[in-house]
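User: I'm preparing a small set of examples for a lab meeting where we compare how different chains pack in three dimensions. I only have the primary sequence for this one, and I'd like the structure in token form so I can line it up with the others. Please keep the answer compact; I'll paste it straight into my notes.
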Amino acid sequence: KYFINQNYGNWSDNINNAIVNASGQIIKILFLDDFFYKNTSLQEIIHTFDINKDHWMVSACTHSKDGHTFERTIYPKYDDKTILFKNGIGSPSVLTIKNEGFILFDTKLGWAQDTDYYKRYYAKYGEPKILKEINVVIRLHPQQVTNTVATEIAREKDFLYTLKKWNVPNAWKLTLEYKTKKYIRQTKNILKKILIKKS
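Assistant: Understood. Below is the structure token output for the 199-residue chain.
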């Protein structure tokens, strides 16, 4: 079934529209540029997801630039202490959720949308079931969400919003550390450009 999102704002608005209109017992999220790793991937999800017990599940994934060769496999692991700062699960394309009591993505977030979503699921339902088999391929390209929203300004905005939203202890210290790392990265980039020009 194809549903046009009439109120398109960002990718989270679009995926929320898909979730709300889904009619099956479980919802498999798969971004349009990603794809299943093998012909039996969807079957593995159905067999692994227990509709009576599970509310969310994540699977292992790998990455590809050309759709044929694969690199950087991720075996998901949820850590509630670090999830807002380090994504140990991966793209939402590894995610399967129960079509009952589901959670929608926070449309105020872009770059940190997935980690916030995982933390909210954990807060409501506990740790995800993990499918350890490689199930999904994340396609790497310049237009993917990570690259289109991951500017310094967008990252900082999401970071500060997330700290406030979750009332993270020592937020001022984390903010200072984040800004310091940001300025170090910016300084390194400037120096690289200067060296390239001189050479």
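A couple of notes for your slides: The helical segments are 11-21, 41-48, 113-125, 145-149, 152-165, 171-198. The longest strand covers residues 129-139.

User: Perfect, thanks.
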